[in-house]
Amino acid sequence: MAKKDRRDEIIELQNQLIRSRTQKNLFRVDDDLWGVREPVLTLDPSEKTPEEKAPSTPDPAPAAPAGNEHASLSWDPPKFPLPRFEQSTDELMRLIRESAESLTQMTEELNNKQQKGTGALPDIPLKDEPVLNSQVEKKAEKAAAEEPVEEPPEKIEDLKAELHGYIGLDLIKQEVDSLINYVTIMQRRKDAGLPTPDMSLHMVFSGNPGTGKTMIARLMSRIYKSLGILSKGHLVETDRSGLVAGYVGQTAIKTKEVIDKAKGGVLFIDEAYALTNRGGQDFGQEAVDTLLKNMEDMRDDLIVIVAGYTELMEQFVNSNPGLKSRFNRFMEFPDYTVDELMGIFDMRCEKSGYRLKDDEAREALRARLVKASEDLSAFGNARGVRNLFERALSKQADRLAGYEEITKEDLESLTAEDIKEA
Hints:
- The structure is a single chain.
- By secondary structure, this protein is α/β, with parallel strands linked by helices.
- The chain is built from 19 helices and seven strands.
- The chain has a five-stranded parallel β-sheet, with helices on both faces. A two-stranded parallel sheet has the order 6-7.
- The protein is extended.
């Protein structure tokens, strides 16, 4: 049954070719199917072709291509005489039908030898129209044209301006400015032919959720590219689940794949302490060992940033001498103040085309954030503000749904009711 289905697929495939090709490109179809041959063409119907002039002795079967591992498989693609110019389209179509029948026979021979254990090639599904040489070239040209062009590094002045435009994070801004100055001077010394110490730019970000660790990690990848430290400057984010597998030997492979993806940029591992706090029989240590080795092998074009809660990250770094020696830059991300959280809410409103309707709405927002500041690790800092903003929009939509007429001001305004119920 499978053999019949395969023959039907091949015949249908050839019929598609017959219907879709015009007479002027039928020669190209023949070349793509069987290879380019020396043309034997004449404009004089009375002149005989070289095949007609030569004695009718059968040609020896061509040898299998060099390096063919399937020596038992016959390699005798059918030969069809090239048509003369005066031949009709029907004659050309007949030749291609014969090609289809011969191709079917060759396929059946491949399948038979496979079933007998001769090592023949497996079946190849032929459900789509075959890709001809010209189509392959066009696809290659299209892929090359669509390949993303690497963007030039951004100006360091623009990146520093973006850094200082963030709300809060005063200590982090000072640390990043100092790091930029250090890297810049080391690069100047190198350009001047002066010795430079090995720079360890791997970092530990510690702090509660929502304090901007991922945001600063993304910015650092762009800063490092601008300074010429990284070739690509992209950021790859992962955590324990992206590095650790469930079976012996697989964790190293999984971790190496993530590291290779991050090469040329920054590998950001969130909640990195989860790699070492599961006990001695856990596979997380295998991920750490793989990470340490590749941090050394790729030290010229890979920067690793690990992040998590402050106390847990201290335990993580001190759990392994290799970690402690490679991570010597620490940035502590403090919780946002109530005023900073208010500023983050206002910034989200401005970017999204909303505003607090009046002082009552602003006081309602401050009351919510004062209460949330009692436990900012649970609230989520800036992440908690984002969630509060989105819930407020939902409550506004529920309120406006009952209005008979809705003005532009209504659509823009968030009321105290929206904030309190969010």
